[in-house]
Amino acid sequence: MAISAKTLLVYYSYTNNVHTIVTALQSQIEADVISIEPTEKGLDYAADNYAIGSAQISAIRANPDDAGSYPAIDPVTVNLDKYDTVIVAAPLWWSNMAAPLQTFLFGHGKEMAGKNIGLIVSSASSGISGVEADAHRLIPEGRFLSPSLWIKSSQTSNAASMITNWLKEVGYSNLSAIYDVIGDDMPENTRIFDLSGNLIKHGEDMILLPHGGIYIVQSAGAKNATSKKIIW
Ligand SMILES: Cc1cc2nc3c(=O)[nH]c(=O)nc-3n(C[C@H](O)[C@H](O)[C@H](O)COP(=O)(O)O)c2cc1C
After folding, report:
1. Fewer CB within a 10 Å sphere, N or C end of the chain?
2. Are 32 and 8 in contact (CB under 8 A)?
3. Alpha-carbon distance 135 to 188, whole Å?
4. Does residue 207 share a domain with residue 130?
């Protein structure tokens, strides 16, 4: 395997709207998917005027730096080194990010430093700025794609076309372009140079190329050597 960086899609969904959105997204991009599950099963977050969800959000608001404020979730094993883009798909709860997803990001958001972060939010009607603020707090060093994608629950059936437009708007295909050129089956004799001619990559080692650069990808096959300039 040469370079395996790619996209991780992480989501939580209580009433399935975000799940539907994620399913539509999966048919448009290649990504590994993690579904967050609260440890406590069968909770009715909407009962008694959303009392449980409300209490969870209040606890986080009161003490956002304390791990004990976040509801327990089933253990997740993830090696974030493998990804250079993370898309977070979240339901909005009381103008914040749904609590179980915040638990995951409280544990792993710092490992997402320097990665591209896309945010998709589903709400009934409330605006998503509070969820964006949560994402920035929990992923302090993320390179956030702008804008976030807001899909109201009434628009869920329209998610596929909204996602298509959003992926274009944030330039998603450019983010992953290099992996089209030098994917897992990158030939051994392919080299990547920066514009000063420094050899950046050769061989089987895994690297993440910093964004904002132009690179030369040279595949020096015996018969047909080619050189391709890519913007990353
Ligand atoms: C505990 C809880 C609190 C919610 N608070 C809000 C809210 O403040 N404003 C809003 O527009 N929708 C609110 N909703 C609705 C959800 O954001 C909306 O139904 C969303 O599509 C749910 O996504 P899901 O089906 O993936 O769980 C809330 C839902 C729950 C369960």
Report:
1. N
2. yes
3. 39
4. no
Q: Write the DSSP string, 105-171.
A: HHHHGGGGTTSEEEEEEEESS--SHHHHHHHHHHSTT-EE-SS-EEEEGGGGGGHHHHHHHHHHHTT
Residue 1 lies in a domain: no
Q: What is the pLDDT of residues 139-175, one digit of tens each?
A: 999 999 999 999 999 999 999 999 999 999 998 987 7
The DSSP bridge pattern shows strands 143-144 and 116-123 to be parallel
| Domain co-membership, 51 together with 93 | yes
Estimate to the nearest angstrom the gap between the alpha carbon of 205 and the chain centroid.
Answer: 24
Q: Return the ligand 1 atom nearest residue 52 CA.
A: 1
Residue 141 contacts residue 114 (beta carbons within 8 Å) = yes
Q: Specify the DSSP element, H or E, that contains 187.
A: none
Amino acid letter, residue 195: L
* Global pTM value: 0.81
* 105 and 19 together in one domain: yes
154 lines ligand 1 (CB under 6 A): no
Is residue 27 in contact with ligand 1, taking CB distance under 6 Å? no
The pLDDT tens digits of the residues spanning 79-134 come to 999 899 999 999 999 999 999 999 999 999 999 999 999 999 999 999 999 999 99
Q: Is the CB of 94 under 6 A from ligand 1?
A: yes
Is residue 79 domain-shared with residue 95, that is, in the same domain? yes
Question: Which helix (H) or strand (E) segment is 178 a member of?
Answer: helix 177-181
Tokens representing residue 218 in the block: 């040279």
